[in-house]
């Protein structure tokens, strides 16, 4: 009887350990970094944004004063990366989200940009923290 109890206790412990370790990678990839926009190139850009492993979300307090051809994209250390363009800004205010395209790794970037493609200038930048 003791051997059976020990066996059941051991297998239950192994199952718990296996399930817990299997869910760790999913949790590790779900971290989000956020930041607040500040305007650039004489534009007023405000509000909060979040970058996760697969998307950028402009929060409900996001606002841009307007510009021709505004885009959402990513950059690093003060340099916009045109290969990390996520698409045209959907609206000038409010919550909206943009999916990261294939080959764009969130971990490679530490800034979210609102970029004017027509004039090739930043309209707003959010430096991302934890």
Separation of the first and last Cα atoms: 52 Å
Number of strands: 10
Rg computed from alpha carbons, rounded to a whole number of angstroms: 21 Å
Low-confidence stretches: 14-29
Number of helices: 1
- Biggest β-sheet strands, sense, barrel: 8 strands, antiparallel
In round numbers, the mean pLDDT is: 86
Order of helices and strands: HEEEEEEEEEE
Spatial sequence of strands, sheet with the most strands = 7-6-9-10-1-3-4-8
Strand % is 35-45%
The coarse overall form would be elongated
The level of helicity is 10-25%
Question: Which class best fits the helix and strand makeup?
Answer: alpha+beta
Question: How would you portray this structure in words?
Answer:
By secondary structure, this protein is α+β, with helices and mostly antiparallel strands. The protein is 21% helix and 41% strand. It has 1 helix and 10 strands, in the order αββββββββββ. It has one helix at residues 2-28, and strands spanning 33-39, 45-46, 48-51, 55-58, 63-64, 70-76, 79-88, 96-99, 111-116, 121-127. The strands form 2 sheets. The chain has an 8-stranded antiparallel β-sheet with strand order 7-6-9-10-1-3-4-8, with no helix packed on it. The N and C termini lie far apart (52 Å). Residues 14-29 have low confidence and may be disordered.
